[in-house]
Design brief:
four-stranded mixed sheet, Peroxisomal Thiolase, Chain A, domain 1
């Protein structure tokens, strides 16, 4: 009996229409286009605007587009997983809310929070349900409305983040393509450097927490940058060595789009040339859990069946990981 792997059989993304450019940010905080671009590689990002719109509204567009593209009936989906740090509500899950908006009935779903590593963790999780034979069709979403937790008076963080969603369909595969291997890791000492201080059970919302803007992203950039470079680059190299791969074997590096300098360092350490690195940080910024699937969607027409892909991410927690994937179509 051939080994069953979980293959991506479709991908679709969604970005809001409204653009927040570096030039526009210059009018909001003490910054400028040259400073932002030279340090991050970001020119603009998308912002979800509209009363009552949340992460599931972007996820809905991504999932509906995915179902249409793959000619899949919503009722044929067995499980939906949503990686996000900006859920619509504490509960129910954004996965459940998205399923409802997409007409999926009696389908299990749950959210997964591993910050910017969320999609990679969720993809590995979803693949296990396929490999075990438990399910035949699993949708994995990466989606975040980061504008809902960004302080636009904090120039160190507001320049980084944008809003987006993207989703993939996982199905069983027996020809050797799909998710081959994954390394996930974490370091809890990172909690102090990248967090949202209020809004959870330790520090529920109050007048004091709102006035102190503690419901927004806090980041101590120096330690986060150093750790991200070290861990994202290291784990990419580790998974390649574990699978006897060298740079020439890799068709594409698909890195989390946090900072172009981090991406460049990861590619150098893994000996993968710049032309094999998926980049869209310039036009979308850091969309947290959405960046990796958004890259796959953005570059889908460059992918060929059997291509070796290395996915790599680093996020708050700290969390990080790398996944080796063979493209299935």
């Amino acid at each position: 009996m051939k080994k069953i792997t979980a293959a991506i059989t479709g991908v679709h993304g969604y970005v809001p229409d409204d653009i927040l450019s570096n030039d526009m940010l210059e009018k909001m905080v003490d910054t400028n286009d040259e400073w932002i671009f030279s340090r991050t590689g970001i020119r603009e990002r998308r912002i979800l605007k509209g009363e009552g719109l949340g992460t599931s509204d972007m996820a809905k567009h991504a999932v509906q587009g995915l179902l249409e593209k793959t000619n899949t009936d919503p009722q044929d989906i067995d499980l939906i997983i949503c990686a996000t740090v900006t859920p619509d509500f504490v509960f129910p899950s954004t996965a459940n809310t998205t399923a409802d908006k997409c007409g999926m009935k009696n389908i299990p779903g749950f959210d997964l929070n591993a910050a910017c590593s969320g999609f990679l963790y969720a993809l590995n999780t979803g693949s296990k349900f396929i490999e075990s034979g438990s399910y035949k069709k699993v949708i994995v979403i990466g989606a975040d409305k980061m504008s809902s937790i960004v302080n636009y008076e904090d120039r160190s963080t507001c320049i980084l983040f944008g809003d987006a969603a993207a989703a993939v369909l996982l199905e069983p595969n027996e020809d050797g393509n799909g998710v081959i291997d994954c390394i996930m890791a974490g370091d809890t000492t990172g909690i102090q450097y990248l967090n949202q201080k209020a809004g959870g059970s330790v520090k529920p919302a109050s007048h004091q927490t709102v006035d102190a803007k503690e419901h927004s992203v806090f980041q101590d950039g120096g330690p986060v940058f150093k750790m991200a470079v070290s861990k994202m680059a290291g784990v990419s190299k580790d998974i390649m060595e574990r699978n006897d791969l060298v740079g020439d074997d890799i068709a594409w590096l698909v890195p989390h789009q946090a900072n172009k300098r981090i991406i460049d360092a990861t590619a150098r350490f893994a000996d993968i040339p710049h032309e094999k690195v998926m980049l869209n940080i310039g036009k979308f910024g850091n969309t947290t859990a959405a960046t990796i699937p958004l890259c796959l969607w953005d570059w889908e027409n460059k992918l060929n069946k059997g291509d070796n892909l290395i996915l790599a991410a680093f996020g708050g927690g700290f969390t990080w990981g790398s996944l080796y994937l063979k493209w299935a179509y």
